[in-house]
Amino acid sequence: MLGDTLNKISRLMYILGEFDKGEVYLSDIAEELMVNVRTIQRDIKILESAGFPIANPSKGEYCFVEGYSLQKLQLSAKEAAMLALLSSIAGSLGGSFQETYISLRNRILENDKANPFYIKLPKGQAFLDDNHSKLIEKAIKKQEKLTIEYDKSKLSGKDISPLKIAWFDGFWYLLALGKDEKILKLRLDKIKNLTPTGVIFKRPKSVEKILEESASVWFEGNRDKRVELAVAPEVAPYFETKEYFPKQKVLKKAGKDGLVLESFTGKYEEILPTILAWIPHITVQDPKELKDLVAEKIATYNGKIK
After folding, report:
1. Deepest of 48, 207, 263, 290, by most Cβ within 10 A of its Cβ?
2. Nearest Cα to 16, choosing from 58, 63, 49, 57?
3. Does residue 76 surpass a pLDDT of 80?
4. pTM more than 0.85
5. Confidence band for 2, pLDDT divided at 50, 70 and 90
């Protein structure tokens, strides 16, 4: 874990240093650091979320926006990398962690009220470092099953195999395997009690890959549902730059007609909120089952506002 964090800091330092020199290409950075391009893309997202203004002048090319530099902020690449990492951690922990980070960030980046940059951190449920959380962490590391008592659920009294503590959309969850090996998403604040069983389980190797591909807490391990979406030209640049859907792939760049995207999911609820948020700029082309579900949601809404 410590080694992974140090590697991430080293990558962030390198990327920031290169941005301070000028334009760089993802493929070049990935080759230099001996990692894949997706890893560098995730690192750049961390820097963006920390408030560093990054431009994307062409496909695969990145740099700071014109006129911005670490030198002007009197920050070294190492200091800037630590700031970015703190932003990533504090935004998910919430509560006093988030407040402390904001205070630190303001002192570093906003000593001038005319500073043109603003960092917006997501708000949500604060992480409680209580006995339950410590017990879960220990069980995950030992790969030990736990007996759970869960708020008003038939799951209470059953054994689970804890996999990860994860943050999704403002809430903390315990991701675990149930009796049928299906991934459970359990709100930490609804867990009433946990008891170690002494029974060791085998952790699936696919957990990180599944989480990396997820778009929301509604993900499933088996992505057997293929979805095809049409994106209007006025918002197409957003979808060319950012992955809004799991395993998103551009099938067709239709110029004035926008884009055609492909995505794979195990549960439509994982992508439905994003589709609804982008209506009328996005339409479902396939499958019909999802088309009908979107139409049903819209009809229900229209019925409520009449």
Report:
1. 263
2. 63
3. no
4. no
5. very low
Q: What 8-state DSSP symbol labels residue 100?
A: H
Residues 109/111/115/119 CA torsion (nearest 10 deg): 40
* CA separation for the pair 71, 79 (Å, rounded): 12
CA distance 14 to 236: 31
Residue type at 239 in one-letter notation: F
The pLDDT, as a whole number, for residue 30 is 87
Decide: residue 111, CB within 10 A, 0-12 exposed, 13-18 middle, 19+ buried: exposed
Amino acid letter, 143? Q
Poorest-pLDDT segment among 84-98, 199-213, 240-254, 269-283: 84-98
258 to each of 139, 196, 253, 278, how far by Cα in Å?
Answer: 48, 53, 6, 14
Instruction: Tell me how far apart the alpha carbons of residues 4 and 16 are, in angstroms, rounded to a whole number.
Output: 18
d(CA 235, CA 238): 6
